[in-house]
Amino acid sequence: MLFAISCTDKPASLALRMETRPAHVEYLKQHAASFVLVGPVLDAEGKPCGSLLVVDVADRAAAEAFAAGDPYAKAGLFESAVIRPFRTVFKDGVAV
Fold first, then answer.
1. CB atoms within 10 A of CB 28
2. 8-state DSSP, 24
3. Which residue pairs, CB below 8 angstroms and at least 24 apart, start in 10-19?
């Protein structure tokens, strides 16, 4: 089942994000088989200010466990994290 995980960084937390990024990337590599789409959300200056992940996991509990295990979450980077079921309608410009 697909879930969209939308995370917003706390204000003035770019240094924490960059400091934690290597552990975050290693964590993502361990779960790469579950990803549909993953990347940072950018502010008006093009700097990361959050994350957006669309993951294919068994259920909501698995999505919540994945989000909670992220080193960014463990470091307290996020002001908020919202997990919602997701349905793909178009992919790569093609209706699915």
1. 17
2. H
3. 10/76, 10/77, 10/78, 10/79, 11/79, 13/77, 14/47, 14/48, 14/49, 16/75, 16/76, 16/77, 17/48, 17/72, 17/77, 19/75
Burial 30-58 (b: 16+ CB within 10 A, else e): eeeebeeeeeeeeeeeeebbbbebbbebe
Q: CB-hemisphere CA count at 13 Å for 56?
A: 8
Task: Enter the tokens of residue 82.
Answer: 């919202």
Quote the tokens at residue 29. Answer: 């590599």
User: What secondary structure letter does DSSP report for 33?
Assistant: G
**What pLDDT tens digit does each residue of the chain (96 aa) get?**
999 999 999 999 999 999 999 999 999 999 999 999 999 999 999 999 999 999 999 999 999 999 999 999 999 999 999 999 999 999 999 999
| Distance from C-alpha of 94 to C-alpha of 10, rounded to nearest angstrom | 36
